[in-house]
Amino acid sequence: MVTTFLIKLVLLAWPTACGITGNPVVQGPSKIDSTKYRNPVFEPILADPTVIKAEDGWFYAYGTMDNWGDGNGPHLIPVVRSRNLTDWVYVKDAFLKKPSWKEKGGIWAPDVVKVDGKYYLYYAFSTWGDPDPGVGLAVADVPAGPFTDLGKLFLSTEVDVPNSIDPFYIEENGKKYIFWGSYSNSPTQGTYGVELSADGRSVPDLHQKFKVAAGDFEAVMIQKKGDYYYFFGSKESCCEGAKSKYHIRIGRSKSLRGPYLDKEGKELTARGTGTILLRGNEKYVGPGHNARIITDIQGVDWMLYHAINKSKPQVSTGANRRVLMLDKVTWNDGWPEIYNSEPGLNDQNVPIFR
Fold first, then answer.
1. Could you tell me the pLDDT band of residue 20, with boundaries at 50, 70 and 90?
2. Closest CA to 327 of 313, 338, 314, 317
3. What is the CA radius of gyration of the chain?
4. Which CATH architecture has domain 2-349?
5. Average pLDDT estimate for 150-178
6. 278 three-state secondary structure
7. How many Å apart are CA 209 and CA 202, to the nearest integer?
């Protein structure tokens, strides 16, 4: 109670220079003491999370457009923030209005990064079963926005990749890249990457795309550690409530462009591959679509992702109640691991950042 009260006081006094107005809502976990936390770290929903540490010292996380059942309608990319990855508060929505370059669809799976002094928000624009979803970009001066939409980067038909959703941004050797892709059985299915323009706002040549994983993956996240690039991708059903079978599989490569191999040496461009990192357990199902790994000052790695509590799988609107989860990542023989390959159920030590 004391911890929550102090957080509220600090946030209410925080200046609007970060793009924050109004009174934030605390929706983090219940804590026994300030050194421990227990999943989930934010609820009712923060699906497909991305996280960034801003220059103001706060971590900002962003999630897919969803109706939380709080009477405020669909949240147009909800923004939450925290000092330690466990005490999250809802701040505002990233968009004041939905982008208009597609007639129908939701704003899904944002990826927020700092590019040339601005905050870039890459996003998917899609409906369930959309024959031609696409990827767009919005930009803001401050981490909480509001973000100004710059329109589409490409539609699925333009890039010849079916179900083009779940964008992910990465830089290598001064070049900017976007990765994306999702489920499909068509000949051109899969997860792909392509080089962006120097300002990261367009794709000079869509024909230069390269494939890194098969069409039974989605939610790509790639992270460099040591000599390897590690591919994290999610498989199976994300959004069937308590029946969801989403889970995370991994591979690695010494090149950003691949080939990415799992522990058995199988290329991820073949279906049915990938080494399991995280799967559901007796309480949480559908763990997946992880954010970038964050390292605290003690050198401990942490990963945010979403999952569904089997006993509370939906909110009043029928939306899947994909809560925000946090677990420690360890490394064994050059591969990332999460304890028991399952969402953590017990009290864990809070990440240390100062």
1. low
2. 338
3. 19
4. 5 Propeller (2.115)
5. 98
6. strand
7. 13
Distance CA 82, CA 232 (A): 24
Tell me: pLDDT of 11 over 90: no
Residues 6+ apart with CB under 8 A from 259: 212, 253, 267, 268, 269
β-pair partners for 106: 126
Q: Please give the residue that has the higher pLDDT: either 19 or 309.
A: 309
DSSP state of 2: H
pTM for the whole structure: 0.92
H/E stretch holding 90 reads strand 89-93
Q: Three-state DSSP class for 8?
A: helix
| The predicted structure's pLDDT at residue 1 | 39
Q: Which two tokens stand for residue 291?
A: 């954010």
DSSP string, 256-305: TT---B-TTS-BTTSTT--EEEE---SSEEEEE-----EE-TTS-EEEEE
- Alpha carbon 5 to chain centroid distance? 29
Domain boundaries, the chain: 2-349
Task: Give 221's DSSP letter.
Answer: E
